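WARN no homologs supplied; continuing
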Amino acid sequence: MTPVHLFVFDTLADWEPGYAVAGINNPRFQEAGDTPLVGECRFSLGLGFLSRSEIDAAEREFAVALPIAEKSGDVTLLSRCLTYAVVLHRRRGDLDRARRAAERALAFTTRHKLLEYMAMARANFSWLALRGGDLRLARREAEAAVDLWSQSSFIYPFKWTALWPLIAVSLADGNLSDVVEHARALSHPSQQPLPPRLSRHVDRALTSWEAGSHEAARAELDAAAKIAGEFRYL
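OK structure emitted
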C-alpha cells in the first residue's frame, strides 16, 4: 500500500497543499476516520491555503481539524488549530473573533508551555491593540512575542505577526532605525516570504537605507505599511 506522507509542521509560503491533498486521496487516509492522522492532514491543507491567502478554503479545513484535535486530545495539533484560527480571523479583519480565539489560544498554549504558540497569541494581541489605537500595548505585546520566540530553539517562520505591529508603532514614533531593524528581520531567509507587491517596497527601503537615502527609505516603508494593512498584517 502506498504510504501517506504528511507535512504538518509550520511552513513557509512555498508549502504546497498538494502534499496534503495526496494524503487525503490515499485509500489508507479514507479508512482512517476522525483520527489525529486525518486532523493533521486537514490542518496542513488549511495552513497551506492560509499561506496562499485562500482564507475561505483554509477555514473549511480548520473546521474539520479542530474538533478532531479536541476529541483526540492531541496537544500539538490542537495548539496549531487554535493558533492559526486567530491568524485566519486576523487576515479577515474580524477583531471580535480574533480576540476570542487569541484568548483561548493563549490560555491553552500557556497551560502546556508551548513557547512558539504563546508568542503567536501575544503577537496577535499586538495586532488587536494596534487596531484599537493603543500603540503602547501593541509594542509591549509584540516585544513579548519576540522575546518568547528567542527562548525557543525552533526558528519560527511567522514572526511577521509581531514584526508588522512593531514596524507600525516605530513608524508612528518616527524611529526609522528601529523600523529598518524590524524590516531586516522580516526579510530573513528563515521567515515566510512576503507577497511580492509588499516585498518590493521592503527591499527597496533596505537598499535605500544602506545607501544613506533615509527619506527614500521612509517613503518605501510607508508604502509597505499601507500594503501590509491591505493584507491584514497590520
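The two ends are 47 Å apart (CA to CA).
OK
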